Amino acid sequence: MAGERGRRPGNPQTRELILSKAVASFVSRGYPGTTIRGVAREAAVDPALVMHFFGSKDGLFDAAIKKSMPVALLVEAFEGDEEHLAERLVTRYLHLWEDPSHGPTFAAVLHAAAASPAAADLLKDLMRRELLTPLAGRLSRDHPEIRGLFAASQMMGVAMMRYVLKVDPLASMPVHLVARTVTPGIQRYLTGALSLEEITGTASAR
């Protein structure tokens, strides 16, 4: 039995321990380098217990994203007037990337999404469900879902160039300067005049 080998039993505290070890592994080893056996070894549990709680490596990654990504802090930035929505959102987003307790996790998630289609699908589902849909609900202009998607794509692009690829001079710019430069474009996506009819018409025709 697992308990007789000195392994931890399957209780909620054990599940949280496994999850914390999984987050650390995804951050330090990436998606390809993280394994069920490796996480089980770090948590001193049987691999079967990891499978019991999370079902698969993808299930473990999904749970790790939900645990480690500060989605609620980003959603808080949605509150307030639309006129300053981009300013609040970009400032919060960049500050989270700058935070040593969150930035490495963000980078690991992006690396994982680039390395694995399964991880990319999990990230897309999380973003759509937890971020893009609530953001669209805050917008009063036409095609709010597409507006949110364009805004998110630019923000992720900035993060990729600054924090993951570390391309200078963007990587070494003061964060307030990056926020000030990026914000007007994000605000335009969210509330400005955009010609989206052709885009939506093309998508509907497919």
Question: Would you mind describing this structure in some detail?
Answer:
This is TetR/AcrR family transcriptional regulator. Pfam families: TetR_C_16, TetR_N. Keywords: DNA-binding. Residues 12-72 form the HTH tetR-type domain. InterPro entries: Homeodomain-like_sf, HTH-type_TetR-like_transc_reg, HTH_TetR, Tet_transcr_reg_TetR-rel_C_sf, TetR_C_16. The chain is mostly helical and 206 residues long. It has two domains: 3-67, Homeodomain-like (Arc Repressor Mutant, subunit A, Orthogonal Bundle); 69-200, Tetracycline Repressor, domain 2 (Orthogonal Bundle), CATH 1.10.357. Helix content is 74%, strand content 0%. The chain has helices at 12-33, 36-43, 47-54, 57-68, 71-76, 85-98, 103-115, 117-138, 144-164, 175-191, 197-205. Helix 1 (12-33) crosses helix 4, helix 1 packs across helix 7 (103-115) and helix 8 (117-138) packs across helix 9. The radius of gyration is 20 Å and the shape is elongated. Mean pLDDT is 86; it is low at 1-5 and 202-206.
Q: Give the name of the CATH superfamily of the largest domain.
A: Tetracycline Repressor, domain 2
Largest sheet: none
Residue-averaged pLDDT: 86
Number of strands: 0
Order of helices and strands: HHHHHHHHHHH
Number of helices: 11
Q: Low-confidence stretches at least 5 residues in length (pLDDT < 50)?
A: 1-5, 202-206
Shape: elongated
Strand content: under 5%
Terminal CA distance reads 55 Å
Here the CATH topology of the largest domain equals Tetracycline Repressor, domain 2
Number of domains: 2
Based on the structure given, which CATH architecture of the largest domain is correct? Orthogonal Bundle
The first-level CATH class of the largest domain is given as Mainly Alpha
Structural class: mainly alpha
Q: Give the fraction of residues assigned to helices.
A: over 70%
Report Rg.
20 Å
